[in-house]
Design brief:
The chain is an alpha+beta fold and 83 residues long. It has one domain. The protein has one helix spanning 44-62, and strands at residues 2-5, 11-14, 19-24, 28-32, 37-40. A three-stranded antiparallel β-sheet has the order 3-4-5, covered by helices on one side. Strands 1-2 form a two-stranded antiparallel ribbon. Strand 4 and strand 5 (37-40) form a beta hairpin. The chain is elongated.
């Protein structure tokens, strides 16, 4: 989700997966896959940058998942001394 600002300065949180394309006409118009168009204060470049930053955070978070599979070697093969 990315935060953008409507022309009336009301914040909007948008699911960036729904963005079909972004136009600068000169206002920035975000067209969603649903066909809905949203005009925002941010530039097209800023919308793209926020989307990239959000997706990078998602990927980075995947590597920190607390539900990762345990090491198949087990703790006994890790070189640690367990007593």
């Amino acid at each position: 989700m990315i935060q953008l600002t409507r022309l009336n300065h009301v914040p909007l949180v948008l699911n960036s997966d729904l963005i079909e394309h972004v136009e600068a006409t000169p206002d920035t118009v975000v067209t969603l896959t649903t066909g809905q168009k949203i005009v925002v204060l941010e530039s097209a470049e800023e919308v793209v940058e926020r989307t990239i930053r959000y997706r990078r955070a998602i990927v980075a978070g995947a590597y920190e998942c607390p539900f990762q599979r345990p090491d198949p070697k087990g703790p006994e093969d890790s070189g640690e001394d367990h007593g």
